[in-house]
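Dear all,

This email documents one entry for the complex benchmark we are building for the journal club exercise. For each entry we list the sequence lines for every component of the assembly. Then comes the predicted three-dimensional structure of the complex as a token string, followed by one or two observations. Please use this as the template for your own entries, and keep the labels exactly as they appear.
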Amino acid sequence: MLVNQQSFRTIWPNIAVDKVIATSVSIIDQTQLPHQFKIITVDHLDSMVKCIKTMQVRGAPLIGAAAAYGIALATLKSTVQQDLELAAAKLIASRPTAVNLQWAVQRMMPILLALNPADRIEAAWQEAANICNEDVAQNQAIGRHGLAIIQNQYQHKTFNILTHCNAGWLATVDYGTALAPIYAAHDAGLNVHVWVDETRPRNQGASLTAWELGQHGVPHTVISDNAGGHLMQHGQVDMVIVGADRVTAAGDVCNKIGTYLKALAAFDNQIPFYAAVPSPTIDWTIEDGLHEIEIEERNYDEVAIMRGRGADGNVLEVNILPSGPQAAATGVANPAFDVTPARLVTGIITEAGVFQPEHLMSIRHN
Amino acid sequence: MLVNQQSFRTIWPNIAVDKVIATSVSIIDQTQLPHQFKIITVDHLDSMVKCIKTMQVRGAPLIGAAAAYGIALATLKSTVQQDLELAAAKLIASRPTAVNLQWAVQRMMPILLALNPADRIEAAWQEAANICNEDVAQNQAIGRHGLAIIQNQYQHKTFNILTHCNAGWLATVDYGTALAPIYAAHDAGLNVHVWVDETRPRNQGASLTAWELGQHGVPHTVISDNAGGHLMQHGQVDMVIVGADRVTAAGDVCNKIGTYLKALAAFDNQIPFYAAVPSPTIDWTIEDGLHEIEIEERNYDEVAIMRGRGADGNVLEVNILPSGPQAAATGVANPAFDVTPARLVTGIITEAGVFQPEHLMSIRHN
């Protein structure tokens, strides 16, 4: 999507025209957003591992692409099986819970190991590019199917969509998942406006979603996570679209903490609530998300510490919680995700079409 | 309540034993909490106006008490009707939408003006003290009635209460409204634990509620506003108690933005949801809070700017939103309150007892 009027992906090989093999990969440093737009050149596997660990690249699909390019970078140093397996292990260990990371590595490795070592470099760069292009195509398809839903309800006045967290192009290679229909609608000339939930504790809405929508020129307004219900009560939200980390076979949606509260409010005000995901995000092995998905409890600091621009424009951190030894300690709990039961979900937007939760199984049967 | 093991109110006259007339009033500077506990001595009407304007004193009942002491301070300079009326006008203008401010001034003035100027000083200090003592007694009664509800459901294991914003002793003269039942339960030896909603955008939960609970020794845990629904789904919340800025005759509860989302989640998980208010907070002139209460839209900066301790311990502000001229501007919306419909409210805890929304009118008939 656009940044400073130029078209970008979140990750790309630095490559001559008509070549397949690059010497380095560029990424956007997402830890500096929205305050600085900084591109990092990565020319070594270990640097890519560090970028994944420090969340300079984040978002499930993008992490997968980064891991694929990590393997490609490793082939530049050695194409020996043992070295490649070491590279794969390093990448998988960089963020143990990221399913796409493992998926991308496990897709690359058999392809490379089936070839003569001499052919592995080109194959690695080619397969990493394939992974990226497939992600882009998938997200474009999600965008098209989501656009059809929006067009269906569009009444030639401002169409207000609320989203939570960042499931935009920054979380993928391009287009995003929840934001793909929004970009598609904006690019098709529809008058869409996005309510951007701040998304505490990590503020991915206020920092990443607001930034990427702003750069692409999509009208948007940041609100505290508390405000969405009130806006829905007053007819100011026409649709909710969120991403998801996991969708169960029954259509339960596991997504960033707070999604469930927005789904309740949407349901209470008869506003359609959609999750947009590539179909591999659907976990066919579980039905009941509420009881079968274990929710990660994250770090105290995410709640206590806020990052922003200080008076001099530099990025600073401040601690917002009480301190001091006399008082009873202020504890922090930080569950990272919640589960929205399928009964509150209008539909799941996938690259294969839009499905009501109870019809989700039909994707699998196709 | 306790601060550093000492008992405090939020406002008090500096006065010799057995005297009524003071020469100054002390307040806790709430803009410095939770980072610094600072007491300010106020010896002039204009200083009190400034304390109200800058929110060094905040919370409806406390603002009323501060205004009453503002009039008392004014009498030290002049007891002439014209001067007192000027003082009253300055106080009322300091925060135009604060109903208690106007109420306190309008209670003080006729009492003073009915007396000889020579008797007005003592009467002013006496009436300000009465206003404070009545607030304390009212909140203690709310505490007793709320305690009875908690005892009724208490099962001799940790009893988890979720609250939103700050309706604690810092918002009143002492004890608080929503927190009064919690302090009563803690002081009665019940094992209560409080989930403290951070309460964006102004963070009154993370800063004020966490601080006052900690100082008084009540176990508590700060959570992002997004987390409460998830905790309720997993049986970790036994009751929700919030304050309110206004309750309608039908039992609709207007309170800090985000309250409605918690009420929806409580309802969805069959968890009792209470609002605790002194009965004057009930507005008998309106029924339908959703359509009849106008919601204040507050400042952009409350969402954009976070205040906390920097690395060196000093209080700093940081801006969390995107900046920069190339992109479409990031707007901010900041509705300050929302309305929870009576259908989601289990009961209203008042000094006169606990009432289901549909029986609220019986208070008025008593």
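Observations: The first strand of chain B starts at residue 2 and ends at 3. Chain B touches chain A through 76 residues (CB under 8 Å).
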